[in-house]
Amino acid sequence: SSSGDAEASPMSLTDSGFQNSLYSCMQDTTHELLHGAGQINSSNQTKNFVKVYKSGSVGRSLDISRFSSYHELREELGKMFAIEGLLEDPLRSGWQLVFVDKENDILLLGDDPWESFVNNVWYIKILSPE
Fold first, then answer.
1. Is there a contact between 50 and 123 (Cβ–Cβ < 8 Å)?
2. Topology of domain 43-127, CATH
3. Localized where (predicted)?
4. Closest CA to 108 of 98, 117, 100
5. Are strands 121-127 and 96-101 parallel, antiparallel or unpaired?
6. Section 39-45 average pLDDT
């Protein structure tokens, strides 16, 4: 029994050491990210990819940090899915843009302030008039 414990000891020390160094590394990175976030004026410094889905099309990934407004995002989505001009006026065209946030709530694109949207969007759905 004691020889079994002796064999297990080095392994658990190694695992523990690895976990500690990994945890320490994650702590440092998290601290740097949180500390650095206050010093960066533009959200364009980090990429923020979200999936965009439209029925009848393959879902696509889009870096929303490239945009600074809903207008720019709508234009790009129109080009991406070959429906230019249809996303700007949902009442006229019938096309709707909604997004699902990280709490799994479905919201109309444009209802939240831009920064709040960028920080909370999980994915975007383009709903056709049908």
1. yes
2. Ubiquitin-like (UB roll) (3.10.20)
3. Nucleus
4. 98
5. antiparallel
6. 45
